[in-house]
Amino acid sequence: MAAGRDERTAVVLSVGEELLAGDIRDTNREEVAAALRELGFDVRGLRTVGDGAEEIAEAVTAAAARASVVILTGGLGPTEDDRTRHGLARAASDELVFDEEELGRIADLFARVGRAMSESNRVQAYRPSRARWIENRHGTAAGLRAEVAGALVVALPGPPFEMRPMLAEVLLEDVVGRFGPGAAPPRVKVRAHGLSESIVGERVREFMGEGADPRVGITVSGGILTVTATSHAADRASAERAVEAVGRTVAERLGPNVYGRGDVTLEEATVASLRRAGMTCATAESCTGGLVASLLTRVPGSSDVFLEGCVTYSNAAKSARLGVPAETIERHGAVSEEVARAMAEGIVRTSGASVGVSLTGVAGPGGGTAEKPVGLVWLGLRVDGVTHARRIVLPGDRETVQLRAARAALDLVRRGASGTLGVR
Amino acid sequence: MAAGRDERTAVVLSVGEELLAGDIRDTNREEVAAALRELGFDVRGLRTVGDGAEEIAEAVTAAAARASVVILTGGLGPTEDDRTRHGLARAASDELVFDEEELGRIADLFARVGRAMSESNRVQAYRPSRARWIENRHGTAAGLRAEVAGALVVALPGPPFEMRPMLAEVLLEDVVGRFGPGAAPPRVKVRAHGLSESIVGERVREFMGEGADPRVGITVSGGILTVTATSHAADRASAERAVEAVGRTVAERLGPNVYGRGDVTLEEATVASLRRAGMTCATAESCTGGLVASLLTRVPGSSDVFLEGCVTYSNAAKSARLGVPAETIERHGAVSEEVARAMAEGIVRTSGASVGVSLTGVAGPGGGTAEKPVGLVWLGLRVDGVTHARRIVLPGDRETVQLRAARAALDLVRRGASGTLGVR
Asked: Is the pTM of this model over 0.90?
């Protein structure tokens, strides 16, 4: 690997003691790597280093020796332990200079949000003399572009919502500008819910062999399954046709469990299927505590299809908000098919939505019994005048059970809206 | 950093092209780092490399030169692109040998789950001749212990539920066995909400200098600020006293914005303060779409204090569920102080909770105007017969605005319940 540097090679660096200590989960690393990969870059390493200017400099120098693009995130803040600018200067054998103009931009930013700029923000106006700024529209930490041993080295701030738009700008202006457009080997992603990895593995086995091209890979996370078909065929056009064809075959074999292609999320697919069907939706949640509504409303424009949600955590709320008869709860217990059905019917009746989904279960860690164990969830769905119920038992801790139950509810709504509910 | 190797130093390596491509978010890295840190190891780097035996060998060799413990995850599977064992052998100048006993163990595993062992699993019975196996009770990929240039090098499989118990065994038997018990340098974490990093940086500046001990570091994520004081003083007892003292000073200087110590989350602190006050809580959300309720109900036992939540996304729901007068919405708009107040009063009236919190805002990306920009959120709090309102403007994309708004609401409830609402 250290055998020098090809044109489209990259290394991604994250800076911060809190990352080394495992205190914070760094998500920038993979996000930057994926973006570079989409531009056809061979990402040769992801590395996390501490706050020291010297170790940052050392990591940048090592990365610049094996990659033509090096992207760092973190360490551009206003505090004493933000030393990426110092490390960058050292690696570039450059010195830090104070930039009045930049300080002006920072001051303007504080003025806009009506807050006083603190003295410590001054440090954010220092840059290596030969480095150029990358504007940060969402924060005070501007990014930096520098040259180290002929490699393009870019430093971006750690907060993802600040980093993201700056990364996009850098990739477009600097990376494509300098290395020309490029593309990753053609690939297709098929997303499904409610299937086990081994089942899917069996259904697509012939595409998973060693030499196979397109070759299929499977990843699973929180009940969401992703099948990726990638082709390295020399001729790009035929490679694209090939992954398309395999993608279609995979989708056919997985049937109605497939909710989308590419990077679409289950909640996006659910909102889309409601919109296509001209339907509106309302939620009645107990064990998931609002997570279903929260996932749906993460989707921009979900207000077109999502009317409201009731988080009826207490039994009193189940009766008062949804008209679930107290005796139904008494007789069958709050976690029961009868209550799930009554909740789904209640939310449709009181909200006027065309689809109503409900959840009641034991998220744990407490509250489990032999008959109603932790992980037991009853789902209800009211659509087209019919009420459906599903019983699932989910593994994992409280948060995992809640997320998987919420996704099961989303998928139930999606299939209800797309008329594939009964389909196996 | 490359200045050789101290006793308790470690490097964590992750292996896999899919990690370099950013297709999968690697969580092992931080998990292993945190576990090593708890044993008092100075984690000097986290690094992710591809599948090539050569690059794995190179990474192991480099890591072994700067750390006394190197832990790898991934690349022990049965497929062609699992080459961690090859890389390990190369780094240890050793050769792979076939281990009949291990193959027997793998065969038994397949027999137990009643599946046929595939020919490809044979490769998992190869190990560097001087390496020793680490049993995997949940999969076919056994781990490996080896020696490279005097460093302990451990390879574990990638799937977290397989890796975790094996890591625990390795840390206990090999790491503690060889380096003796140890503990992380004493540290105290102070958690706060609603303060900017730069403000806090100024208030605790004297503890942030490069030589300071205890030394304070600040991290901020989604509106949550963590100030960590760590001491490396030789005498542990005095180090503990020192970080305690600095922790207290920091907490005093940050005042009522501090919600807790250690790894407590804001939602946990909010539930705790409600419980202490003997209060119950209900939520009325618009722009956050159920996220506040969802965060509260992630906390085990939250059912003691959380009664219910209404996600009144549509204006009709605001009126129907919470009794917000339609003309109030018409006159002031759904995103307004008046509607936030009416929502908070409505949720308390209809739920009977002692605290009611409400949010209405523009989460974006659409829907912003000059007067009501994306990120504008009105919060309402009804407690002790008084209604409070707060106006905030949050930066970031939709998800960020929603998360920060939800946390602002949680903190409002926390301060309402603990009687520190007015305190600045």
From this structure: no
